[in-house]
Amino acid sequence: FKSYSRVGTSHLRFISILRDPIDRLRSLFLSEKRQGSLDLIGFNITKECLKDVLSCEAYLNITFDMWARLQVSRAEECSHLNSISNIWPDCGTDGIFGGIYSLQLEMYLRYFQGDQISLVRFEAATEDRRQCMDNVGDWLGFTGDANLTKGPVISDQPVKGDFMLENDDSWLSTEVQGLLEAFYQPYASDLFSIIKRENVEFIDVVERNELF
Question: SUPFAM superfamilies given for it (predicted)?
Answer without folding.
Answer: P-loop containing nucleoside triphosphate hydrolases
